[in-house]
Amino acid sequence: MSNSDTCPKITIGITCYNAASSIERALNSALLQDWADIEVLIVDDGSTDESRCILAKRAADDSRVRVIEHDRNFGCAAARNTLVNNARGEFLAFFDDDDVSAPDRIRLQYSRIIAYEQLSGTKLVACYSSGRRVYPNGYVVELRAVGSDAVPPKGATMADYLLFYKRVGDTFYGAGTPACSLMARLSVFRKLDGFDVKLCRQEDVDFAIRLSLSGGHFIGISEPVLTQYATTGNRKSALVEFESFKRILDKNAEYLEATDSYRYMRLWSEMRYLHFTGQDLRALVVLARLLQLYPLRAGRHFANTAIRRFRHERSMNAS
Question: Whole-number mean pLDDT of the chain?
Answer without folding.
Answer: 95
